[in-house]
Amino acid sequence: MHVAVLGSSRHPIAEPFAGGLESLTWHLVRGLRERGIEVTLFAAPGSDPALGALELDIVPLHLSDSARADVSMVPEAWLREHDAYLQVMVALQRRDDVDVVHNNSLHHLPVAMAHSLRAPVLTTLHTPPTPWLEPAIAIDARSRQVARHGHFVAVSDHTARAWSHVATASVVHNGVDDRRWVAGPGGDDLVWVGRIVPEKAPHRAIAIARAAGRRLRIAGPVGDVDYFARHVAGELGDDISYVGHLDTDGLVALVGASAAMLVTPDWDEPYGLVAAESLACGTPVMALDRGGLREFVVPGVGILVPQDAGDDDAARAVARAVVLDRAACRAHAVVACSVDRMVEQYVGLYRSLTELSDAA
User: Mean pLDDT, to the nearest integer, of 143-172?
Assistant: First the structure.
């Protein structure tokens, strides 16, 4: 089997990962190759050299002076991304050696052009509906020809339901490599990991940690500089520390030495990979109950509180979380959240799609 994987053009597929999409793509490519499956990866510049990715980039973008003078011209970065995916999809039209195209991008063109390829296209839905992708999927759903080629899978039941008005999606939860995310000794401090942006709401974690009377360590890329300056930087001190954007080894050491992970989304979390990574380290989770988190943060390994819970209520939940059995957290992650399970499920979907394609 030969699978072409389309990654994101916005962030490299490399550690430290920008988010769950990049982590999934990196682990998927490696897992498929470990199983003897040929993979061609298209990904952003700067991706892990070991993946052998073909770059999704158009630099420089050649536009005439007349085109650049058009007052309706969209930002050049948008045009480069559009042309990069257009170039890939046109190239794939001419190939007959690819059995499945697995689209892990957030761009609309791979969905809109799925019908033009010989191979079936499987798109993983990583986010809630977006204004660019939703219309492409809606058109796909109305076209009988495209529907033979375009297929969808979501990273959680919650995300599948969010897209159900335009697509029917299978569900494959994101996976954690439990060979790298190993059990840690625990500790006294709390930890928060993720992109530092308003929708991830680390400011809530700061308030909850203080209400619980515990130190908090924050790790992750600063995705919104203004938000960080306004809501995080001024709170840093002896009890709240920012340790930077760590690679996997650094995160494993940090999370494994923590009493509990705080997950504080101010949006419907499509899956919540950081919670699964925490459980793999044996570290219990205290999370605001939004999105797909409840599908694997279950009693015995984590505590969920309503999204509108006050800081004191959340602090009481922290006190219940930190005494949960770390061995049970680890065991649950190995069974329910492993990257091996994820890869096997995707391989099963690929086989089903190739059989459908052969029968068409």
Answer: 86
CB-based burial label for 309 (10 Å; 0-12, 13-18, 19+):
middle
- 74: pLDDT confidence band, cut at 50, 70 and 90? confident
The answer to whether the CB of 120 falls within 8 A of the CB of 100 is yes
Half-sphere exposure of 321 (CA within 13 A, CB side): 37
Q: Which two tokens stand for residue 282?
A: 């044996």
Give 187-196 pLDDT, tens digit per residue. Answer: 999 999 999 9
Take residue 285 and report the two structure tokens written for it.
Answer: 């989770």
Peptide bond into 60 cis (omega under 30): yes
Please provide residue 319's backbone torsions phi and psi, each rounded to the nearest 5 degrees: -60, -35
pLDDT digits (tens, 9 = 90+) for 190-231: 999 999 999 999 999 999 999 999 999 999 999 999 999 999
What average pLDDT does the chain have?
Answer: 94
The CA distance from 147 to 115, in Å, is 8
Task: Tell which residue, 197, 236, 195, has the closest CA to residue 217.
Answer: 236
Token pair recorded at residue 320: 């219940």
Q: Is 160 helix (H, G, I), strand (E, B) or coil?
A: helix
Tell me how far apart the alpha carbons of residues 306 and 287 are, in angstroms, rounded to a whole number. 9
pLDDT at 143 over 70: no
State mean pLDDT over 78-103.
94
Q: Which amino acid is at 223?
A: G
Q: Where are the domains of the chain?
A: 2-175+339-359, 190-336
Q: Are 183 and 282 in contact (CB under 8 A)?
A: yes
Domain 2-175+339-359 sits in CATH at 3.40.50.2000
Same fold yes or no, 2-175+339-359 and 190-336: yes
Would you give the distance in Å from CA 213 to the centre of its chain?
Answer: 31
* CATH code of the region 190-336: 3.40.50.2000
- Find the angle CA(221)-CA(156)-CA(183) to the nearest 5 degrees: 60
pTM for this model (two decimals)? 0.92
How far is it, in rounded angstroms, from Cα 268 to Cα 167? Answer: 19
